[in-house]
Structures are given as structure tokens and as C-alpha cells.
């Protein structure tokens, strides 16, 4: 006769268990949404992982700097000189001491060169229609003759003057 009590108690116990499990499950799930815990025990520090994305760059920017540009824009004094029979145009060029001087000689007939003994400068002999370039540093103040070393061109008047000022 007392066996009827047992099922009732079991239902109550099961019911309580169900409620407890349900509650714990509910708490666990809400807990889970906020912080990941392995087995319900509260983790003291919420694991916040802030990932730092490495910045890739500035390598290409460094490669974009052409080294030759540095010389181009600074103290290079460039002169294009026409060489003919028997003259230079212009036949007088003026620079400042310390300037890097670039001479471009353009030959318009026969063949000519540009010779400047004071600075040890001489272009190759340049046939008509072509050009040659020579570069030097004007490191001495003064007035210096340049001339064409081909044949008798110098004696025939193919000379000019480089003036280097302070
Ligand atoms: Cu000449």
C-alpha cells in the first residue's frame, strides 16, 4: 500500500531535478553567451583576444626613390653647345665654383669635340648629327679656354671660354 508514495516522490524528485537542470542549463547558456567557460565554473578573466594585424608596407615606398634624381635636381649646370666649322654656340659659359658642369656637345657638320685642359675634360670626337656628354666639377675659380682638338679647328677659331666665379 505504501508503494504508491514512491512514484509520487520520484516524480517530485524528477521534477526538481528537471527544474534544476533546466535552470542550470539556462544559466549556463546565458553565461556561455557572454564568456566561454569550460564547465560552468566562472572564469576570472574573460578571454578577450585583440588581434593586432601586422601592417605590411613602406617597403615599396622606399624603393620608389630613385637615387639618380638627387643629382639631377641639385647643382648640375647643364649646357648644350652646338659645334660647327669653326665655332661653338654658345662660346662662353659661366658657372660657380663647386658646380657640377655637364656639357652636351652637338656636332652639326664635319666632326668636333670639346676639350677643356684646365679640368682634364675631353669628349670623344663627335661626327655631324650626333652628340656627346661630359661632366666635371668646376672647383677652380678663373677663366678657362675650351677648344676643338680636331685638325686645325682651334687655330681656325673654334674656341670658347668657361668662367668660374666665386
Ligand atoms: Cu671642330
TrEMBL record:
Keywords: Membrane, Transmembrane, Transmembrane helix. Residues 32-54 are annotated as: Disordered. InterPro entries: Cupredoxin, EfeO_Cupredoxin. Residues 72-158 form the EfeO-type cupredoxin-like domain. The keyword Membrane applies. Residues 36-54 have a biased composition (Low complexity). Pfam families: Cupredoxin_1. It comes from the Bacteria. The chain crosses the membrane at residues 12-29. This is Cupredoxin domain-containing protein. It comes from candidate division WWE3 bacterium.
Amino acid at each position: 500500500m505504501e508503494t504508491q508514495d514512491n512514484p509520487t516522490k520520484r516524480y517530485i524528485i524528477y521534477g526538481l531535478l528537471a527544474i534544476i537542470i533546466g535552470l542550470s542549463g539556462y544559466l549556463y547558456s546565458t553565461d556561455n553567451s557572454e564568456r566561454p567557460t569550460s564547465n560552468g565554473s566562472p572564469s576570472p578573466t574573460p578571454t578577450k583576444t585583440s588581434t593586432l594585424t601586422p601592417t605590411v608596407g613602406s617597403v615599396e615606398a622606399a624603393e620608389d626613390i630613385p637615387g639618380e634624381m638627387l643629382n639631377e635636381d641639385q647643382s648640375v649646370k647643364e649646357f648644350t653647345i652646338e659645334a660647327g666649322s669653326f665655332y661653338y654656340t654658345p662660346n662662353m659659359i659661366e658657372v660657380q665654383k663647386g658646380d657640377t658642369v655637364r656639357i652636351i656637345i652637338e656636332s652639326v657638320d664635319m666632326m668636333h669635340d670639346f676639350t677643356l685642359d684646365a679640368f682634364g675634360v675631353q669628349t670623344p670626337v663627335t661626327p655631324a648629327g650626333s652628340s656627346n656628354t661630359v661632366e666635371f666639377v668646376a672647383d677652380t675659380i678663373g677663366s678657362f679656354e675650351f677648344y676643338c682638338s680636331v685638325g686645325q679647328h682651334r687655330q681656325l677659331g673654334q674656341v670658347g671660354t668657361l668662367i668660374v666665379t666665386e
